Amino acid sequence: MEFVLHDPPPLLPVIAFNNAKRKPMTLDAFRGKTVLLHLWATSAPGSAQQLQSLDRLHQLLGEDQDRFEVVALSLDPGDKGQAAVRDWYMRAGVRQL
Fold first, then answer.
1. Do residues 73 and 65 lie in contact, with contact meaning Cβ atoms separated by under 8 Å?
2. Which of 2, 3, 87 is CA-nearest to residue 48?
3. The whole model's pTM is what?
């Protein structure tokens, strides 16, 4: 897979989701930041390693979090998905995302 840098970045459609506190959000909440958007699911192979790496990256950012944000967006469905993600994060040792 090749990484493609667009200059200027293309406009994205509105992507709505609930955060960990079940508050509705869109990616507009991160306007002005560089966002690493990772779409994943608890059933996807390799998710544990990917999210553990992104968790470490998020932790290492420190003061740069005002300019760069890691957004790990689970595609697990509904409220059941949110509980599954919370449990999955605990088992995988994901603490910062």
1. no
2. 87
3. 0.78
